[in-house]
Amino acid sequence: MRNLLLASIAAAPLALAATAATAQESSAEQSSEASGGIAPGAAAEADNLVVIGSRRKGRSDTESVVPVDVIQPEVISSTGYSDLNDALRTLVPAFNVKRLPLNDGSSFVRPATLRSSPADHVLLLMNGKRRHRSATVQIGTGHATTSGSQGQDFNVIPPIALDSIEVLRDGASAQYGSDAIAGVINLTLKSDSEGGSINTEVGQYFDGGGETFDVQANLGLPLTDAGFINLSGQYITQQKTVRDGVHVGAQALRDMGVPDVPDPAINTGDPEYMAIKTAWNAGLDLGGGREAYAFGNFMVSESEIGFFYRQSQAAGGLGQHATYADSIFEGTDAHPQDFDLAAIYPGGYTPQFGGDQTDFSTVLGVRQDETESFGWDASFRWGQNEIEYSIWNTINPSLGVESPTSFDPGSLAQREYELNLEAYKSIPVDGLASDLFFFGGVSYRNEQYTIGAGERDSYIAGPLRDLPVGSNGFQGYSPDIAGEFETDSYAGYLEVETDITDQWTISAAGRYEDYEAFGDNFSYKVATRFDFNDNFAVRGATSTGFRAPAAGQLFATSQTSQIAPNGDFILDAVLVPGSPAAEIFGSDPLTPETSENLSAGIVLSFDNFTATLDFYQIDVDDRLLLSDQIATTPEQRAALAAIGYPNGQGVQTVRFFQNKLDTRVRGADFVATYGHQWDAANATDVSLAVSYNEQILRSDPAGVFTPGKVLEFEEGIPGWRGNLTLTHHIGDFQLLGRATYYGEWTRVDLDYIRTRDPQVIFDAEIAYKGFDNFTIAAGARNLENDYPPPRRPIYESFGVKYDNHSVFGLSGGYYYLSLDYQF
Question: Residue 533 and residue 530: Cα distance in Å, rounded?
């Protein structure tokens, strides 16, 4: 795939130029409204105009009827992260994301949560238009809340392209459609027609590894004399980190003089990563109040992780069942002499797993906004995310000593297109304090999910058919599994908003959706706000939501190696729900999720201080979740083999999607900002954000979750999260300090359960802006170089030193130096 990256570098400017010719920007006016940065000492004085939460223009985040966070680009860059997942985790306490090594595709597309709801309950927009899903369905053994989700990937847009990020923390399915059960995140692209910037950053971890080089550029250009095109790009490389202890078996083999023992035998640090990301945004005035627009992105990336080490022979108290091929001889016709691992890998082997990802989207449209009382918008959206897997330094045991050692196990792709027509109209009504604002639209959306077959040796059953079949670690997709799967949906929606009085605002929205595979649904939302005076207001909303299973969730499948509580490698299979294989274990066809959302809050606003406190409850019925691992019986394995399921006799655990649980998330979010101008050269900004939530099951989990999995679902994410940020300006210097608090949470690792103590992580940055057009900054994340606690004892024998489900990462402190040039 290196050739693909080289070709992409060459093709990227051509792609940008071609898009420029088509023109763009569905949100040119909206983007410019939301772009105002906060001046020093004015954190609480500057209102950020928002474009989500309400279709009516001109409202700020403090005036919104629902809670909306607006994050400016300089705040994003101050986190020191190039990954938007980590930047959002740092800035928005209600947003959580972990890095999951040893988790197949979840190591490449990280599963995020908002208000303890998975990524496919949070809708991602760009310039107000829906983004396509990632091709990765989270079927690794990650957290119970995110396992099985298929959301959008937050890490495909260069941060320098962003004018702002808006986070709507409220149910919005009636306004924006399926997936907006817990909220909406909108990425607004820059729309400047001149100037630009170049940013370069280098850094690495305190204890070595993770060396990062990141260069980003943004350029604004005129498009004739009536438009603009804004181009952004990023090139980033990051080396892996090694944060493991000693694998006792591998060390014993070295001590015995066995050659070619991998060193390190296992790696659970950050993956090796390289990406090229581009984004574009353009608009052209057609006259008569009409505007043509286009925007989109293109990204290619390469990532690499390692799996668990497989020993070639017993040593150090490990090995008799440490090699997956050795663990299934009992009850089969195969014998150890049929397969000699040491003939291929004398020192054992650690499979290496790679993911090459391509992401592309474009939105083309025309809108008319001639007056404030009427306008329309017609658009076409197309997007695609594809990931091609590779696995090497492994074997297909059933092929014996003739097995290749590298494989192409196949690919996954998500493709979407959407046609959309929207219009708004403001009508004066006697007795109301404002016009009655109507907004409505219709849309058609098509989603295609493709599983691409791997090479034959990655899935074929060789002559040693009683040994494991397929590439060990991650079995390839066979032609029986591969295929293209499609869903269609139609929607019509209407939103109404008005000011009853100068103090009282009310809005209502309704959406009708019809899914080809799941029937129709009507969702609604009612929201209101009452301002008692200029300083104090109350707001609240009630809404319903609807989410049909994504095409990937209907057809995703896999076979991977897992570790059992006794340390043995076992074969775990994810079955297609409702398939003959899944029906052996009681699987039923999937149905849509439905939700009810309640929220209420208060807003305080003064000259240099603002604060909001919002309470919420989200009930989801028929929650779509990936079941816990179900141990197979000999009779069930025989039934799998009888229907021709690959590796049927060797599958020790299975999982599949189910709709058998009802859930509830309940919590509160507090956000406050304060700014003070001490004198002409000194100013201080302070922000505090705190989030609390709890998640419970409202139905019997029997048959879906074990008691341990229930505990992970309800207590596996910190209930309390918070961050306190202090920024002080002294002349040309800017000093930033941040403390991030992670509350107590429960780690469930199979049958090993531990409570993790609260943790505070400190970050700092100093920037100097005294040079013409240049800013130089140096910073550090995790100043105290904190590491997570150890994982369960059995994993220490395998060299796993730290808990790989850490809420703040497992590579320790990180320092960086950046240089920014504005022109």
Answer: 9
> What is the C-alpha to C-alpha distance for residues 761 and 783, in angstroms, rounded to an integer?
7
Question: What are the angstrom distances between the C-alpha of 110 and each of 388, 603, 815?
Answer: 16, 33, 23
The structure's pTM equals 0.89
Q: How many Å apart are CA 353 and CA 307, to the nearest integer? A: 7
Distance CA 648, CA 394 (A): 21
Residues contacting 85, CB < 8 A, separation 6+: 97, 110, 112, 154, 155
Token pair of 168 as six digits: 């709507």
Yes or no: say if 636 and 649 are a contact pair by the CB < 8 Å rule.
no
CB contact at 8 A, 96 and 717: yes
Residues 6 or more apart whose Cβ sits within 8 Å of residue 780: 80, 763, 764, 765, 813, 814, 815, 816
Whether the Cβ atoms of residue 656 and residue 575 lie closer than 8 Å to each other: yes
Region class of 731: left (phi > 0), else alpha (psi between -120 and 50), else beta: left
State percent of the chain over pLDDT 70.
89
Q: Which DSSP letter does residue 194 get?
A: S
Q: Which amino acid is at 175?
A: Q
Q: What does the alpha-carbon distance between residue 466 and residue 14 come to, in Å, rounded to a whole number?
A: 52
Q: How many CB atoms lie within 10 A of CB 194?
A: 11
- List residues bridging with 543 in a β-sheet: 525, 597
The answer to whether 455 and 416 have CB atoms below 8 angstroms apart is no
Would you state the structure tokens that stand for residue 125, as one six-digit string? 């927009």
Phi, psi of 8 (to 5 degrees): -70, -40
CA angle 120, 274, 558 (to 5 degrees): 45
Q: Where are the alpha helices (DSSP H) in 283-354?
A: 341-344
Burial readout 1-40 (b: 16 or more C-beta within 10 A, e: otherwise)? beeebeebeeebeebbeebbebbbbbbbbbbbbbbeebeb
In 578-633, alpha helices (H): 580-583
Question: H/E element holding 320?
Answer: none
With beta carbons less than 8 A apart as the criterion, state whether 487 and 551 touch: yes
Q: Rounded to an integer, what distance in angstroms lies between the CA atom of residue 795 and that of residue 563? A: 9
Domains with residue ranges and CATH for the chain: 2-822 (2.40.170.20)
Two tokens, residue 562: 């897992």
Helix (H, G, I), strand (E, B) or coil at 30: helix
SS3 137: coil
Q: What are phi and psi of 256, to 5 degrees?
A: -80, -5
Query: Which is more confident, 461 or 723?
Result: 723
Question: Tokens for 613?
Answer: 């406190």
Cα gap 360→277, rounded to integer Å: 10
3-state secondary structure of 506: strand
Q: What is the pLDDT of residues 534-568, one digit of tens each?
A: 999 999 999 999 899 998 998 888 887 776 666 66
State what percent of residues in the chain have pLDDT above 90. Answer: 60
